[in-house]
Amino acid sequence: MDNRPIGLLDSGVGGLTVVKKFIAQMPNEATVFIGDNAHIPYGDKTKDEITELTRQSVEFLLSKNVKLIIFACNTATKVALDSIQNETNTKLIGVIKSGSIAAIRATKNKHIAVVGTQMTASLHAYKKEITALDPAIEVTELAAPKLVPLIENNATPADILPVLTETLEPLQKKSFDTLILGCTHYPIIQKQFAQCLPNNVQLINPADEIARYTEELLQTKGATCERPNLGKHEYFTTGDVKKVNKLGAQILADPNFNAIQV
Ligand code: DGL
Questions:
Q1: Does 216 lie in the same domain as 90?
Q2: Are 6 and 70 in contact (CB under 8 A)?
Q3: With 229 labelled, which of 73, 139, 147, 198 sits at a CA distance of 20 to 30 A?
Q4: Residue range of the domain that includes 149
């Protein structure tokens, strides 16, 4: 038994799509989330900047006495997780392996597409992970730097659709049957992704798999929360609380969503 909360971090509200899956998968667990909205987007920053900002969020979560930390950010997972793991005994879990496993399971024609931030795409985060697990799989990667700012600014579907259509254009002639939403912000516009892609393409949200994996891990370690419905969820942001509260209420379908500024 371990009644301490699970910590989650992201550069912004994207990580709330992961929190949402965690609450659904493990309703007894408490969570603490920090979104570094003051410094978003991470995807266009240097590796050193991303690592330093992520370290600050990890330190914040450790000060909240969390039992493990989920990097609910693909960019931070790829750039900073390994080095920060060397600095702490608290287990850190990233989204990329989970997304890769789920996509490998889903693809039938062994061709997977991944859309992510500039950093995630240029470091071949998913390609490396997927081909290490199954070298026969073809992986097509695409950077979509315009999407995160639009999502963070609560753009309407009508504003997002043309940008997304243009972004996905290079994928048009590719024959993939599975697409990984390789940035935790993208599930927020999953409907628009589906609208822009052929019907046979399955969309993978890595958060589904990471929530299952984390639950299994806690069970194996005997570290689940045993106070039924402790259900306490705390939200922190380094950015504008009003803006985050509006988006958070939508993403979590919780009108009482309330973030605290740090
Ligand atoms: N949500 C983050 C991810 O999954 C990226 C957003 C950003 O560029 O800061 O990579």
A1: yes
A2: yes
A3: 73
A4: 97-206
Q: How many domains does the chain have?
A: 2
Asked whether 37 and 13 are in contact (CB, 8 A), the reply is yes
Lining residues, ligand 1, CB within 6 Å: 10-12, 14, 40-43, 73-75, 117, 120, 148, 183-185
Q: For position 153, which CATH number holds?
A: 3.40.50.1860
- At 230 the pLDDT is 64
How remote is the CA of residue 217 from the centroid of ligand 1, in Å?
25
166 falls within a domain: yes
Which region among 137-141, 221-225, 228-232, 238-242 has the lowest average model confidence (pLDDT)?
228-232
What confidence score (pLDDT) does residue 184 get?
98
Q: Answer whether residue 1 is part of any domain.
A: no
Mean pLDDT (the chain, rounded):
96
Which pLDDT score, from 0 to 100, does residue 227 have? 78
Summarised one tens digit per residue, pLDDT across range 220-230 is 999 999 876 56
183 is annotated as an active-site residue? yes
99 is in an annotated binding site: no
What phi-psi label fits residue 130: left (phi over 0), alpha (psi between -120 and 50 degrees) or beta? Answer: alpha
Of 51, 27, 31, which Cα lies nearest the Cα of 39? 51
225 is catalytic: no
195 and 240 housed in the same domain: no
In a domain, 215, yes or no: yes
CA angle 231, 235, 239 (to 5 degrees): 175
What pLDDT score does 226 carry?
87
Whether residues 202 and 240 fall in one domain? no
